[in-house]
Amino acid sequence: MNMVSRSRRSDQHELSEGVSLCVRVGMNPLIRIQCDLVLARNMVAEIEHPTCGPMKLVNTPVKYSHSEPSIRSAPPTLGQHTDEILGDILGMSEGDIERLKEEGVVS
Question: Is residue 17 included in any domain, yes or no?
Answer without folding.
Answer: no
